[in-house]
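pasting input
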Amino acid sequence: MTSAAADRPVDDLLVGVLGGAGPLGRGLALRLAAAGQRVLLGDADAERARALAAEVAGLASAAGGGEGSVQGGADADVAGAADLVVVAVPFAEHAGTLGGLAEALAGKVVVDAVVPVGTDDLGTYLVDVEEGSAAQQAAALLPDSAVVGAFHTVPVAALADLARPTVDADVLVAGDDAAAAATAQALAGRLPGMRGVYAGPLRNARHLEAMAVVLGSVDERYGAAAGLRVTDV
Amino acid sequence: MTSAAADRPVDDLLVGVLGGAGPLGRGLALRLAAAGQRVLLGDADAERARALAAEVAGLASAAGGGEGSVQGGADADVAGAADLVVVAVPFAEHAGTLGGLAEALAGKVVVDAVVPVGTDDLGTYLVDVEEGSAAQQAAALLPDSAVVGAFHTVPVAALADLARPTVDADVLVAGDDAAAAATAQALAGRLPGMRGVYAGPLRNARHLEAMAVVLGSVDERYGAAAGLRVTDV
């Protein structure tokens, strides 16, 4: 499917972030707002979302993001109001959150950034997902949305730290809908230092989710907030 | 286990490359020899290996790799003679090749670079491996070797092109044996422009094999020979 949002300039889009209280969601909301994007920060608890949105808006404004804005609300309301939605909830809440939002998200670009992980003696590992990946699970639950996978390998600690003017990382985007993938790439390009790179069909989202696990191992070994750059592109 | 090779300076090691006739194996043999490493190029067919070794040695020498050397031989002989072995055979020959080499490779560092892939209408996809990954399959077949996974995401076309003095890519190394992983990282660091980065336990090798599939999609989209750099490390 082709969504209406995919045909509009990305700067004009009202971007919803589901799971905005988590480190990735909060960091993306912050950087997008600081870059001038209008953002709706969603959480299961609307009150919590509004308080967090005010905090994020203040930080983004202090960083010079004059034209952006951040409002908060319940995930369902954010899904209904936004033009494009980034999904950044914990995997344990992934199916439960999206299961009720098929209608609210119909016709929209949905960018799934969720990494399904567990922890054991060896550290963090990738959890099996019946549909193949979190992003493919989203696609199964949202048959009328244009789902892509992206933002899995973004260094979360660097996102939150506005003292770093840029984040040194590419954003790999996997998706079957060309227009939706291009929109997600353009959204990634709004973040200073970052760049969206097309990474193949939606089934490759599993491999991007997996690379978040690898980068977690890198972070642990080197005390880093590691990201990825794709060379020769 | 800790292998003897893991305790020696990497420059001194005689490096075997199984599957040296394939593009990755040939490219690694070429770049290693050009960097001054002594290399044994292996193939199922010893005659073919010797002819290819002579060709690779000539190219490496022309590129200024005076101190390196390349000899060719049957995979089994190469496995027995080398101090460290890189496995770069096609996945279809992976279990068959390694199944008979447990004794020859005992006590050695084995660097598995094999990507298990199939092809369908959507392009290339990662094939399931019962042990979890090609590298874990190698570890199961070689119980007395120190197996790590590495070199999956190296841009093969760039490796072969000695007109490029450096290759712009990191080499992610996954392994449970710390000394073997460090040796593989040091070997990667012998290749101009490249760097070995520790990428977690051996089970993460699956995710590195998967990233080769993603980079294949990137290459297809952008007409590139894409590699990966890890940032903040």
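fyi The CA atoms of residues 52 and 60 of chain A lie 12 Å apart.
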